[in-house]
Automatic annotation (TrEMBL):
Residues 271-280 have a biased composition (Acidic residues). The chain crosses the membrane at residues 15-34, 46-65, 85-103, 147-172. GO terms for biological process: transmembrane transport. InterPro entries: SLC26A/SulP_dom (IPR011547), SLC26A/SulP_fam (IPR001902), STAS_dom (IPR002645), STAS_dom_sf (IPR036513). It comes from Oncorhynchus mykiss. Keywords: Membrane, Transmembrane, Transmembrane helix. It comes from the Eukaryota. This is STAS domain-containing protein. Pfam families: STAS (PF01740), Sulfate_transp (PF00916). GO terms for cellular component: membrane. The lineage of its organism: Eukaryota, Metazoa, Chordata, Craniata, Vertebrata. It is found in: Membrane. It is a multi-pass membrane protein. SUPFAM superfamilies: SpoIIaa-like. Its main location: membrane.
């Protein structure tokens, strides 16, 4: 049985070996799967490697994974089944036990040349860089970063760093989505971005806003800024103006109320036979309400947030949608959500 006291000393290297071994196995598997037209189950490979190394570790076996060079050599010689691997293992066993001494004086450069010739297919992947540049520059950047990090550092550190770099690119992609306003294709119920299609028409008084990415804490603030920019509504300025106007109106009403109260005490006798002051105040209040509820003609009647690309919402995303609904509602613009996924709909109801 393994010595438990050594676990603390080897756990770091063991983790690095497991990550590198699994990464190499999946990478080689997918390369040949694309070449020969079959699928690779990553979960199955993980279970196979995990069980093999766990059981083998009890009997002091070496950690196992895929060998890139030997795999390419076997594939180039026509080996396609486990029988080829078994025969290859038997040949290596014979060489190590009896024939190895004959190769002792063979220069390593000769052995390296044999391996390099069989790895030339892997080396030709450099030709994929122009294709990646044309199709997806982010994928090309991940490819180049992985190559450089693996060459500069050892494979375990290089692979771990490249995985971290790839995850960062995912975060950056979600932080920089494409925001667009949608318009209606004439005589249909189809809506497309107005900046990409000349034939679509925006619905008068309605703004339909869509983001190409999900809504969560990393891009919630940018979502609000993009909505204000695309709709042309400076929500912060309008709310500030409304608050100032409301405060000014309240101060004016209080001033008029104090003046009316003072005049009432001074001229109470002269008010006999005139209309009731409470009725006048009621009419003034109704007029004030009607004036305050008048909709600004420069603003849209409603904003529709099209959320079909949103796969999930976190707490910050939900608060962002509620803040948008509250802020735009304060200036008389109704906010409506549409195209919500079932998971998002459930989360919004919580």
């Amino acid at each position: 049985m393994p010595t438990a006291s050594l676990f603390g000393q080897v756990i770091g290297d063991a983790f690095a070996l497991s990550v590198v071994g699994y990464g190499i196995a999946i990478s080689l598997g997918r390369i040949f799967a694309l070449k020969y037209g079959y699928k690779v189950d990553s979960n199955q490979e993980l279970i196979a490697l995990g069980l093999s190394n766990t059981i083998g570790g009890v009997f002091q076996c070496f950690a196992i994974s895929c060998s890139m060079s030997r795999t390419m050599v076997q594939e180039s010689t026509g080996g396609k089944t486990q029988v080829a691997s078994a025969l290859s293992a038997m040949v290596i066993l014979v060489i190590m036990l009896w024939i190895g001494a004959l190769f002792e004086e063979l220069p390593k450069a000769v052995l390296a040349a044999i391996i390099y010739v069989n790895l030339q297919g892997m080396m030709k992947q450099f030709m994929d860089i122009p294709t990646l540049w044309k199709s997806n520059k982010v994928d090309m950047l991940v490819w180049v970063a992985t190559l450089i990090l693996t060459v500069l550092f050892n494979p375990d550190i290089g692979l771990a760093a490249s995985i971290a770099f790839s995850m960062l690119t995912v975060i950056f992609r979600t932080q920089l989505p494409k925001y667009s306003l949608l318009g209606q294709v004439p005589e249909t119920d189809i809506y497309r971005p107005v900046e990409n299609y000349n034939q679509v028409n925006e619905i008068p008084g309605v703004v339909i806003f869509r983001s190409s990415a999900t809504l969560y804490f990393a891009n919630a603030e940018m979502y609000q800024d993009a909505l204000a920019e695309k709709s042309g509504i400076d929500i912060t300025k309008l709310i500030s103006q409304k608050k100032k106007a409301e405060a000014k109106r309240l101060r004016k009403e209080k001033k008029e109320a104090r003046k009316a109260k003072k005049d009432a005490k001074k001229n109470a006798q002269e008010w006999e036979g005139e209309p009731d002051s409470s009725e006048n105040e009621l009419e003034k209040g109704v007029a004030t309400v009607e004036e305050g509820s008048k909709h600004d003609s420069t603003l849209p009647r409603a904003i529709i947030l099209e959320l079909s690309p949103v796969n999930f919402l976190d707490t910050v995303g939900v608060k962002t949608l509620r803040n948008i609904q509250r802020d735009y509602g304060d200036i008389g613009v109704e906010v409506v959500l549409c195209g919500c996924q079932s998971e998002c709909y459930i989360f919004l109801q919580c």
